[in-house]
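Run folding on both entries below.
>entry_1
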Amino acid sequence: MRNKKLRIMLLCVILISVFTTGCYNPEAKQTLSAYNGLIEWGGKDGKTDYSRGVAHYNEKMYEQSIAELTKAIELEPKNIEAYHYRGRAYGALKMHEQAISNFDQAIGLNPEYAWSYNHRGNTYLTMAMYDQAFSDYSTAIELNAKLLAAYHQRKSFYQSSGMKDQFNADSNKVNELQFQLAELYCNRGNGYDLAKMYEQAIFDYSKAIELNPNDVNAYQKRGRIYYTAEFYEQAGADFSKAIELDPTFVSLYRDRGDLYERQEKYDQAIADYNRAIELDSAFSATYYKRGNLYRAKKMYNQALADYSKVIELDPTFADAYYNRGNLYAAMRRYDQAIADYNKTVSLDSSFVNAYYNRGTVYEREEMYDQAIASYSRAIDLDPSRGNAYYNRGNVYVIYKMYDHAIDDYSSALELDDSLANAYYNRGNVYDSKGMHAKAAADFGKAMEIDSRNGRSYSNRGVYDIRQRPSMTLAK
């Protein structure tokens, strides 16, 4: 699929050249740098000089372009494109006679080269040689019926001459070709987007919009790239414009809703998801996203309803079960929470958070064997999950499996040595095992991390008294 889309992009490059040329090339600087490197390496032929000349032209470095194209012509005197581009460079410098001479050379080598007629016509127009310009535009159109630029110029002649029928005909052709060209730019933009060449994709989508201001797809796709690049203002403008053009385009509301969610504009996001659901009530992901926003706004009943709707539409949506399970747990509906976590891991056996959260619910429900099993599975899947070691250690303490508890607290602290409670709990276990020095050290560490932990001070004080039995307490 990827190769197919890239082939489509290359085809669009070819087809766009049939309609237009001379546009800014987003890759011009990189291309020019590549040719400079080629020459330094030792490559030298007419094609290299020509390519450098075109790259200079695209960078509006016209004098350098002329110099390189002249070298190319010296090496390849029949290089039609070299004459054509040198003519354009001369034209950009307002050296009109030299420009026409080069276009004449290109046409002499290939009398059917429509673009040289078109650009020679532009030069004649600049020189106020209107008859010659009109003739060249007409010839260009005869040779290439899709040459948009020539229609643009010729229709202006018809308009100024009061030739309404001809003007209308050329205007209609311009509109037709602009629409086709916009579609080609949009398709090439899709290819660039697929290749993660986002600057080029934005350029092409922008050209498509310029040619067809009603191109909803181009606005949406450009908006998505802006969203990915975190240019949220531009993304929002594109999504909103596309919605203005087509208020029933459901995915636009989803896209803008995602943008609002990213910006923490939850009410606007919910409004867009509401509209998306009105337009397509069977798309489960929209309910899921809206449910997440309801949960963030602590509208738990609405969130539950949305997660349940997701599950109704798609019984394999593991995240919906997981999030609903979290809500049930928060509402102390533990049996339902466990059922949802069970379903989550049956659909996705690598869902670490589901195992961990299920473990916390089992622990609350005093189902300690199941809690240990769930924490252990979470640790197997993610050995860096410090809170899973800590919680499992707490359960081992309940079972008086002190060595296991110490190991787990130690593992949690290796991963995060700022866990005051892990030091405190391990200190208690050491104390229970008669390892009072280690207990005191842990209580001291807990006090350093959390000076408000009165339990640590108390336990450390008890240890100090044990170490000084002859000490008389102050009365």
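>entry_2
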Amino acid sequence: MKKVSIITVNFNHSHVTDALLDSIGLKNTYQNIEIIVVDNGSVVNPIPAWQQKYPQVMFIRSDINTGFAGGNNIGINAATGDYLFLVNNDTEFTDKLIDKLVNTLNNNNKIAIVSPKINYYYQPGMLQYVGYTEMNYYTARNSQIGQFEIDNGQY
């Protein structure tokens, strides 16, 4: 079973990251995971409290805000998984999320990257993202699919 490293970045929103970690604990069924949270220079260091509440999670503190990409790179450098799952800290896991993504990757060797359907955090039931159209090579543009649609299971 391939190992999945779940990586998220926190900056001054520990309550949001708490909700993510709680949702992973409630919804995840995939057995071989590691969870890495990078605190990106938050004013108040949330790691001591998190270590008490989530002892199975790896926490890394950056003394400065390295930005979203920098924070993810810190997590990636610490990751040991075969697959990396970069998630915003306002993500809520759904049932069998990791299982579905891993199965998609394992069952098609032409796929190198996958993303789940994403709903807006503060607008439950409203789609934010389900993918992109193919790029038009004449205009070098593509379009986001599903944004601002009601999620009726159409994707």
